[in-house]
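haha ok so turns out i had the wrong file open the whole time. this is the CORRECT one, sorry everyone. sequence first:
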Amino acid sequence: MAGAFFLAGAFFLAEVFFLAEVFFLAEVFFLAEVFFLAEVFFLVAFFLVAFFLVAFFLVAFLRVVRRAGFFLAALLRLGAFFFDRASTSLCTTRGGRLASLLVGDAWRGQAAGVASRTIVDSVTRVDSPPANLEEIEASLSALREAHPGAIIERYLDRFPRIAADARVAAGAAIVGEVELCAQSSVWYGCVLRADVNRIRLGARSNLQDGVVVHLGDRDPTIIDEDVVVGHRAVLHGCHVEDACLIGIQATVLDGARVGRGSVVGSCALVTAGQVIPPHSLVLGVPGKVVKQLDPADEAFHRQLAAKYLRLRHNYQQG
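then structure:
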């Protein structure tokens, strides 16, 4: 009997300990789950806060950069405004001092040189056509027939003279006292306007597409033989000697003289009255002689001009 009670008591205690252990383990697992979920929550919260902080500071940084960009653009515009004001007043008494501070005496001297060549009253108003208008119109009609599509016009009694074997491409404008010598060529979109002075394009020389040639009151534009003038260049009242290369978008201004066999680089500016020695390489704005070329290079320049002779021939005969 006692043994039975002992066994029953032992079994009861075992059950109690088992239930207690199960309860304890359940509590432990519950707490572990709670801590795990809390850790996940805090990690998510941390990453969300970090993301929003980074986004906030990034937006603030971009706003600062944008405002700095606006500020820099404003400074550049202000500088350009003052530079433009100085440039336009270079030849005035008040502007001269400001110009010398901002752009230097050399620029002021060049601008004064351009102004001194300009005659504001050089154009006289006329109220009737020239007396020999019929003769001029007959010459113009013959030229237009020989160069279909080209704009060939007179200015008063001044009209173009074009050699029989010269080429004027369709769309080019030849106006006033323009002389195109033998085997020269004027390509698409060029403008040669000789109203207050004259223009001469020498034998075997060519003006490539988009070139603008004008002149000064005192300065004709003379282009000698075997000269190659690149696309969109501007020649204004200057003299370009034999076998020169004038680069794309280069500018040669009033009274300037480019010595034979020279190269004026792309976008370079030969300023008013500047004299370039023969066989020079000119670069920059304003243009400066950076190198003396070998006189043998002149042969290459003439070969390049001869290439355009063949192009001219093919367009006319092909």
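Confidence is low (pLDDT under 50) at residues 86-107.
again sry for the mixup
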